[in-house]
Amino acid sequence: MLTKKQSELLRFIHERLQDAGVPPSFDEMKEALDLRSKSGIHRLIMALEERGFIRRLPNRARAIEVLRLPESATVSAPRAQRFSPSVIPGNLGRIRPQAPSRDPDEQRAVMVPLMGRIAAGTPISAIQTRLETFAMPPEFLGGGEHFALEVRGDSMIEAGIFENDTVFIRKQETAETGDIVVALIDDEEATLKRLRKRGASIALEAANPAYETRIFGPDRVRVQGKMVSLLRRY
User: Which residues are catalytically annotated?
Assistant: First the structure.
């Protein structure tokens, strides 16, 4: 999945490449997405590139190639050349499909997709491209639908969450004060933080004194899920 703005930008670039053979300028992207500044476009471009949807060629102005669209594995580049999408590898190893097991514990395992990386520091765009699948015991998660994210950053270290840890998130749109959540800010940036309700405002609180608590109006923050478990590999 992509955020709405990321999807809109990817479609706009793809359609312009198909029609004109060259990508749009940053000004054209900004106008098409009705954004106030080019910095917003820059963040969206970086997020799409990091997820493997596009790539920028060095030493060429406005050189952007669409590698794939959300609905398909790959798309053809504007010219005859076809490229393979570049995904961001985790350090957890790809889980290979195995033959059906007769072990009752394995048969009742919950399959949880690893959807990429999440910032536990300065917010970055959430990656929502399925990379791996974990077979987890149900008691490790509890009820509901879940996804996993690989942690980047150190702002949650005092909560026992370190860089390269894998956190398991229960999908939900509400949370209580004190819950550690995946919060989507302005429909563009996502971060892993402890949520605090302060009157009508929402505070996203780090677990590291080096980071300041960030406070937003309720219309700027959407909860995407609550952290329920953590996996660490030594």
Answer: 155, 193
Given a contact cutoff of 8 angstroms between Cβ atoms, the answer to whether 52 and 10 are in contact is no
Question: Looking at the whole model, is its pTM more than 0.85?
Answer: no
Q: Chain-centre distance of CA 204, in angstroms? A: 18
- For residues 185 and 216, the answer to whether their CB atoms sit within 8 Å is yes
Q: Write out pLDDT tens, residues 86-129.
A: 333 333 333 333 444 444 444 478 888 888 888 776 544 455 55
N-terminal to C-terminal alpha carbon distance within the chain: 30
Burial of 4 (0-12, 13-18, 19+ CB in 10 A): exposed
What is the Cα–Cα distance from 133 to 26, expressed in whole angstroms?
36
- How far is CA 23 from its chain centroid? 24
What's the rounded mean pLDDT across residues 176-189?
Answer: 90
